[in-house]
Amino acid sequence: MASVLVTGASGFIGMKCVDALLNKKHRVFGTDSTPNGMIGINPNYTFVQCEAFDKDTISGMISANHIDTIVHLANSTDNDFDSYITDAELKRAKNTDKFIYEAADKYAVKNFILLSTTAVYGVQKGREPIRETVSEKGNTNYAELKMTSEKYLGKAFKKSDCVPVIARVAPIYTAEYTQNLRDKVYDYKDDVGYFINDGLYGFTFCCLYNLLDFIKGIINVPSGRYDGIYNVCDTEIITAKEILDYERDHHRIGAIVQKNSTSGFSFNKAKAKQDYRYFDPSTSLMNWRIDNTKARRIAPMKWTLSTTK
Fold first, then answer.
1. pLDDT score, position 158
2. How confident is the model at residue 127, as a pLDDT?
3. Sign of the C-alpha dihedral computed for residues 144, 147, 153 and 159 taken in this order
4. What are the residue ranges spanned by the domains of the chain?
5. What pLDDT is stored for residue 268 in this prediction?
6. Up-side HSE of residue 91: CA atoms within 13 Å toward CB?
């Protein structure tokens, strides 16, 4: 049994993470600026309401509870953030990351798992699967936020016994939460779903349960150095046609149109930089295949769109 601190514990990913760790009989400590419905249900769960940048409270939790692993989910997105990431959000995230890394090192935390994003890669034009060694080219505020977090992490634990793990996670989905899937195939301006040509092009996503299996896998690694960057995602892409069929079968999408090219789409670069949900349809046929070979050494990545729950 490990003692695990989860930041951002009241978020969509955070609550699922806490529940998964409790089911494995770990002692879990959660922090978030808002409470959640899991408080008081399990004796192995302790929740403290505070801001992610509350140094005294979070440092006190780490030092008092002999934390083995920190899962740093604060400053992640999906349905927890406003879709716009501003300069103020970037500054706050930097300050938060710095102090929590220092506290983890000071109080001898064994593992530190940072939730990052595959958005740091930007759009890759080559056809090879996108591996962890690809140069980061993301040009959005969210990509910058996470690239900065990764950079600080590397510096903070360079001479530390704490094992730093960066999980570059593809956009998350479950059976009920499909916003990230829909963003790739929905024209909000015309209020229709769409596919280009035959709809057999696709994107890499991450079933939430693949991420949770990865986190549990890192906590359970018995020994050795397993630090570094991991692409955490489904093994296979999900095609535009599969997304549309799935959403239609679940009665979450109406009209669907076929487009023969991407030339008719408009794109707002300024909005795309701040709004992490904004998608450029002209990049639909680019390479979105992320390689997860390294992460599969930790977890099997067995979950798919057809098996998620």
1. 92
2. 87
3. negative
4. 3-172+207-234+291-297, 179-200+238-283
5. 84
6. 3
Residues 76 and 13: their CA atoms lie apart, in Å, by 9
pLDDT recorded at residue 124: 84
User: Could you read off the pLDDT of 234-285 as tens digits, one per residue?
Assistant: 999 999 999 999 999 999 999 999 998 777 677 788 888 888 888 999 899 9
Predicted pLDDT of residue 80? 56
* Residue closest to 77 by CA, chosen among 93, 100, 95, 98: 93
Low-confidence ranges of the chain (pLDDT < 50): none
Q: Which of 88, 130, 119 is nearest to 183 (CA)?
A: 119
The 10s digit of each residue's pLDDT in 8-44 is 999 999 999 999 999 999 999 999 999 988 888 899 9
Q: Tell me the two tokens of residue 45.
A: 């769960």
Residue 84: phi, psi to the nearest 5? -95, 125
Rg (the chain; Cα; Å)? 19
Look up the CATH superfamily of 3-172+207-234+291-297: NAD(P)-binding Rossmann-like Domain (3.40.50.720)
